[in-house]
Design a protein that fits this description.
The protein is of the alpha/beta class. 62% of the residues lie in helices and 12% in strands. The chain has 26 helices and 16 strands. The chain has an eight-stranded mixed barrel with strand order 8-9-11-12-13-14-15-16, surrounded by four helices. A five-stranded mixed beta sheet has the order 2-3-1-6-7, with helices on both faces. A two-stranded antiparallel sheet has the order 4-5. Helix 18 (541-561) runs parallel beside helix 20. The longest helix is centred in the middle third of the chain and has 36 residues, at 275-310. The termini are far apart.
C-alpha cells in the first residue's frame, strides 16, 4: 500500500503526504483498538504498561489527525506545531510505558553479560546520535532556539526509548508472553530509527515525504498494534520466527553495533577527536577489560575444578583420586620403611540416614572428619572416599603405631553427637594393611584393608583388624562364594531341607520350617550363616528367596497328593524381599501355582523389617488378608520387640535360641516365662528354637511353652525323610523318636 501510493502520487507531494498520513491513521486506529483491549484484559500491575502505551498511541493518532486537517485546510506540507507537540507527548508516554513494564517485571539484577551488552549498545547509539543528530541540529540549523530545543527533544527521547527497549529486550524472558513484548520492542526500535533518520535529514534540510522514515514509522505502528492483537487473541500466536530471531540476536547485537560504529569512524575520521572516536575508544577499553576479567574468572574456575577433582565437597578432605596418587607416591618414596593403609567404615550409618535424614547424616560426616583431623594432626593424610568411608596413610608405620591410632579413633568415637534433640553414638570398623608386607600395589593394599575391615564388622563391629594370610584365605573364599552364588540357582545346587516343629508335650509334628542348603560342587556344604549374608548384600537373596518360597509351597502340596495330612510350612523372608516391594505378588503366585490353601503357609520375618514401619506393615496386612500366617523369627533379640507385636497382625513369635542355650540360669528361665506369658496373653503361639536337651525341654514345658523345634527332635532333613517320618508317625499321644 505504501509504495503503491507513492507510485500513484507521482510528483504530487501534497497528495503523497495525504495518502501516507491516512495509512498512519489506519494503523494507529488498529493499534489503539487492540492495545485498549489488552489494557482491559491485563492483570496486576501490567495494566499500567498497556494503559500508558494505549494513551501514547491515542495522542499519536490525534497528532496525525491534526496534521491531516492542517494538510487539507492549508494544502501545505509544513508540520503543524500542535501535531508536533502531540507527537512529542506521545513519545514521552511510550517512554513511560516501558518504565512501567520494567517496574512490573521487577528486574533486580542483570547477568554480567547482559549488562555488558546493554552498555556497549547504548554507547554506540549515543555516539552515533551525538555525532549525526544532536551536533548537526545545534551547529547547522538556522531555526529559533525553541525550534532547536524541540528538535533536540526527539533524539534525546528516542535515545531514552532505545535504552529502555534494549533493557526490555534482554528481559523479555521474564514476561508471560515474550513474543508479544518482542513485537513492541521491535516496533519502538524501528520508530527510533525512523526518527533518527528523519531528524538527521531535517537538520541537513534533505528530508522528503514518502522516504524510508515514513515506511519505518508505519511498520512500527503496525507491529505495536499486532502486539495488542496477540495479547487479546485466545488461540492465535505470533510467528515463532520472532522468538528465533530474538535468540539469535541476543548475543550478537552489541557486536554488530560496535562494527557499525567502527565503520562510521573510518568513514568520518578527520584526525580530530569526535564523539564517534570517543565512543569507540570506550568500547574497546571495555572489551579488553571484560576479556581480562573473563581470563581471571576462568583461572579461578580452573583452580576450583582442580580442587574439586581432588577434594570431597562435603568435608573438604582429599578424595579417592588424591588418595590413590598419594599412596602410590608413598610407596615409591618410602621403599625402606612400612606404610600403613587404614580403611575406616562407619557402623550402621545407613540407619542414621534413614531415621534422621541425609542432612543429619551429612552433619555427622563433617563432625567425624573434624574429629579425625584433630586426632591425626595436619601431617597425617586423611581422605574421604565417599559415603561413610575414610582412609588414613601412616608413614614409617609399625604395628604399635597403627594400634595406637586405631584405638584413639575408636575411643574418640564413643563421644555422642547431639543432633535434633538426639544423642547418637557412631562406631566404626577398621581394616589395616601395610606396604610392602601385605602387597606392593595400591589395588592389593586397598583390597586387603577392605577385607580386614569386613572381618572387623563380622566380629561385632566397633573394632579393627590387621590383614593376614588367614584373612586372605577367608577373603578368597568369600569372593568365590559371592561369584558362584550367581550360578548356583541355575545349576540347581540349592536344596530345601525341612525341620519339624512339634508340640512339646506330645511330640506331635505340627508344622515344618523350610531351610535352604547349598552343596557346592567343589567347596562342599556351605553354611547358610556364611552365604546368606553375602546374598543379602549383592541382592541374590531376591531370586533365591523366590525359589525357596515356590519350592516349599509345591512340596507341601505334593505331600497332600501323597495322602499325608495337610501340614503348615514356614518360609523365611529377608528384609531385601520386603524392600523390593513385590513380596505380596510373589506369595500370591506361589500359592496359585501350588494350589495351596493360604492358611497352610507361614511367612517368617525378623524384627529388622521395621526399618521401614509403614511399608512393612502394609505388606504384612496384605499377607494376612490373603490368609497367610505371620511369624516373628528370633524374637527378643531386637530393641523393638514389644512395639512389633503390638503393631503388627502376627500369629506366632519364635523364641530365639540364645534364650534356650542358657536355660540353667534362673534369670534366663524367668525371662523365658515372661515372654511365654506375654505371648499367651496376646493370644499368640510361642515356638522355642534350638531345643537340644531334655532339661531345656522340661523347663520350657514348666514355663507353659507349647511348641518348639531343635535337634532334640530332628535336625533339618530332606523332603523324602520328612515324608517317611510323617507316614510312620505314631498316634498323637505317642512320642516321635526322630534321629539327630
Amino acid at each position: 500500500m505504501f509504495y503503491g501510493w507513492r507510485l500513484y502520487s507521482g510528483d504530487n507531494s501534497w497528495l503523497l503526504a495525504i495518502g501516507i498520513n491516512m495509512q498512519h491513521i489506519l494503523g494507529l486506529v488498529f493499534a489503539n483498538v487492540f492495545t485498549f483491549r489488552a489494557f482491559k484484559r491485563s492483570k496486576n500491575q501490567e495494566w499500567k504498561f498497556w494503559f500508558t502505551l494505549n494513551l501514547g498511541l491515542f495522542i499519536y493518532l490525534l497528532a496525525n489527525l491534526f496534521w491531516m486537517v492542517f494538510l487539507v485546510q492549508r494544502e501545505s506540507l509544513i508540520l503543524s506545531d500542535t501535531a508536533y507537540s502531540l507527537w512529542l507527548t506521545a513519545y514521552a508516554l511510550f517512554l513511560s510505558s516501558l518504565i512501567n513494564w520494567l517496574k512490573w517485571a521487577k528486574p533486580n539484577t542483570f547477568k554480567g553479560v547482559y549488562l555488558f551488552n546493554i552498555i556497549v549498545f547504548m554507547i554506540t547509539a549515543a555516539s552515533i546520535s551525538l555525532h549525526f543528530l544532536i551536533e548537526p541540529i545545534i551547529t547547522l540549523s538556522n531555526s529559533s532556539m525553541w525550534k532547536i530545543i524541540t528538535m533536540l527533544a526527539f533524539p534525546i527521547i528516542d535515545l531514552s526509548l532505545l535504552f529502555l527497549s534494549v533493557i526490555t529486550y534482554y528481559l523479555i524472558h521474564k514476561d508471560t508472553d515474550k513474543r508479544v513484548m518482542l513485537l513492541i520492542v521491535s516496533g519502538i526500535f524501528l520508530h527510533t530509527m525512523a526518527d533518527s533518520y528523519a531528524v538527521y535529514s531535517g537538520a541537513l534540510e534533505q528530508y522528503t515525504r514518502g522516504g524510508l522514515s515514513d515506511f519505518l514509522w508505519l511498520s512500527s505502528i503496525w507491529l505495536i498494534g499486532l502486539a495488542g492483537y496477540y495479547m487479546t487473541a485466545d488461540r492465535d500466536e505470533p510467528s515463532k520466527s520472532f522468538e528465533k530471531t530474538y535468540e539469535q540476536m541476543t548475543g550478537i547485537l552489541p557486536y554488530i553495533s560496535t562494527v557499525v560504529l567502527m565503520l562510521l569512524v573510518l568513514e568520518s575520521y578527520q584526525w580530530d577527536l569526535n564523539t564517534l572516536i570517543l565512543g569507540l575508544i570506550i568500547i574497546v577499553v571495555m572489551i579488553i577489560a571484560r576479556q581480562l576479567h573473563i581470563l581471571k574468572e576462568n583461572n579461578q574456575l580452573i583452580d576450583e575444578y582442580r580442587h574439586l577433582a581432588y577434594h570431597d565437597p562435603l568435608t573438604g578432605l582429599s578424595n579417592r583420586e588424591s588418595f590413590e596418587e598419594q599412596m602410590n607416591s608413598e610407596m615409591e618414596n618410602n621403599e625402606n620403611s612400612l606404610t600403613a593403609l587404614l580403611l575406616i567404615d562407619l557402623d550402621r550409618f545407613k540407619v542414621v540416614n534413614d531415621t534422621l535424614g541425609h542432612q543429619a547424616g551429612d552433619y555427622i560426616l563433617v563432625k567425624i572428619s573434624e574429629y579425625l583431623q584433630q586426632i591425626l594432626g595436619s601431617d597425617t593424610p586423611l581422605f574421604r572416599l565417599g559415603g561413610d568411608e575414610f582412609t588414613i596413610i601412616l608413614s614409617d608405620a609399625t604395628v604399635e603405631k597403627c594400634e595406637r591410632v586405631a584405638g584413639t579413633i575408636l575411643e574418640t568415637f564413643q563421644k555422642p553427637f547431639a543432633i535434633y534433640d538426639h544423642e547418637i553414638i557412631v562406631t566404626a570398623s577398621m581394616g589395616i594393611s601395610m606396604y610392602p608386607d601385605h602387597g606392593e600395589t595400591f589395588e592389593k593394599l586397598f583390597r586387603f584393608a577392605d577385607a580386614a575391615m569386613y572381618l572387623a564388622k563380622e566380629g561385632g563391629k566397633n573394632g579393627y583388624r590387621f590383614y593376614n594370610d588367614d584373612l586372605n584365605q577367608k577373603m578368597l573364599r568369600r569372593m568365590r562364594i559371592e561369584s558362584d552364588l550367581r550360578k548356583a540357582l541355575e545349576e540347581e545346587q540349592f536344596e530345601v531341607y525341612y525341620q519339624p516343629k512339634v508340640e512339646l508335650k506330645t511330640k506331635k509334628i505340627i508344622g515344618m520350617e523350610a531351610l535352604l542348603r547349598w552343596q557346592h560342587p567343589e567347596l562342599g556344604w556351605i553354611s547358610p550363616a556364611e552365604f546368606i549374608p553375602i546374598a543379602e548384600e549383592n541382592g541374590q537373596i531376591i531370586s533365591i528367596g523366590e525359589w525357596v518360597l515356590k519350592t516349599a509351597c509345591l512340596q507341601s502340596k505334593r505331600w497332600q497328593h501323597d495322602g499325608l495330612s495337610p501340614t503348615n510350612i514356614s518360609v523365611n523372608v529377608s528384609v531385601r524381599q520386603f524392600q523390593q516391594g513385590t513380596l505380596l505378588t510373589l506369595v500370591k503366585e506361589a500359592l496359585q501355582e501350588a494350589e495351596l490353601v493360604p492358611s497352610l503357609l507361614e511367612i517368617e520375618v525378623t524384627e529388622s523389617i521395621m526399618q521401614n514401619t509403614k511399608e512393612s506393615t502394609e505388606i504384612i496386612r496384605g499377607l494376612r488378608d490373603l490368609g497367610v500366617q505371620i511369624s516373628i523369627d528370633d524374637f527378643g533379640t531386637g530393641y523393638s520387640s514389644l512395639y512389633i507385636i503390638n503393631q503388627l497382625p502376627i500369629d506366632t513369635i519364635k523364641l530365639d535360641k540364645t534364650f534356650i542355650d542358657d536355660m540353667k540360669s534362673v534369670d534366663q528361665q524367668a525371662m523365658v516365662r515372661t515372654i511365654v506369658d506375654l505371648g499367651m496373653n496376646m493370644k499368640l503361639k510361642v515356638v522355642a528354637e534350638g531345643i537340644e536337651t531334655d532339661y531345656q525341654l522340661n523347663k520350657l514345658i514348666e514355663a507353659k511353652c507349647e511348641y518348639g523345634q531343635g535337634y532334640l527332635f530332628s535336625k533339618a532333613v530332606r523332603a523324602e525323610e520328612i515324608e517317611n517320618l510323617l507316614q510312620e508317625a505314631p498316634e498323637p499321644d505317642t512320642q516321635l523318636a526322630l534321629s539327630h
